[in-house]
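Here is one chain, start to finish.
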Amino acid sequence: MTTARVIMKTALKQIGVGGQGEDIEAEEMADTLIMFKSLVSSLSIERLYIPHILHASFNLTGASSFAVGSGQTVNIARPIDIESVQYSDGAEIIDLDKIGARDWEQETIESGIPTKFFYNDLYPIAQLAFDKTVTTATGGGGFDDAYTEHFRIGYHAYLTAPVLDTDIVFPEEYDLSLISSLALLCIPMFEADVTDRSASILAANARGLKTIIKNNNSEPEEAELDGITQGLSSRRRYILTGHSNGSTKSRYNYPPRNNGWGFGGKWLSDSIL
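Its structure:
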C-alpha cells in the first residue's frame, strides 16, 4: 500500500513542484491534500473506477420504507447507492429487483414478502423502500449468526478521505492513475511552469490510465456466437467488505460463484464515463 504523502509528493514533482532536491513547503502539502481529498470524493461516484461494495445485514419490519444513514434504522453511513438487497425468511433467499424512481411511482404497497426495492438518495437521510410492508420473518435463515437479520444489503460507499501518512484505500496498481490525475489538478493551483505539450501528455496519461482501470473493472459482456450466448471472459478485481456488527474485511479477488446465498460479491455495471 502507498501513503497519501507519497502520492502527493510524486504528483507535485510531475509538475516541477519540489523537484531537484527542493523541499515541499508545509502549506503546499496542505493545499495538495485538500485537492487529493476532493479527487477521491469525485472518484467515489465513478463506479467502474472504484468497485467498492460493502455488505451489511439488518432486521427490518413493520413498514415498507426505512431511513438510511448513521444512527438510522439502516445504520450505515449514507451510501452513494444501494446496489442489491436480499431477503431470507428461513425457507428461501430472495434477490430483490432494483427499480428506479419512475417505476416506483407506479407501485402499490401491499403486505407480504418484498420482491422489489427502491433507493432514494435523499440528503442527509436517505430512504430504502420496498414494494411490500415488511412483516416479521419466522424461523431461522437470517444473514447473521443468530438468524434474526433477514435483509442483506450491498451498497456503494463513499471512499474514506486520504490522511497524510496513512495508506490510501486503493491497490497499488492505481498509483500511477492517481498521481497523474492529482498532478493535473495541481497545475493551476500552483501556477506550475508546465509547457502545453507536457500538460497534454499528462492529461493523456491520466485519461488512459483511468480507462485501463475501468476496463479491467467492467463486467464481461454477453456475445452471441453461432446462436449460443457466451460470456466474454475477463478477470475482475473487487473489494468485498462488511458484517452487520460493524466489522469489515477487505480483500482483492475474482468474483465468486453464486453459492446459493448469491451474495459473495457484486460488480458495478452502470458506469459513469
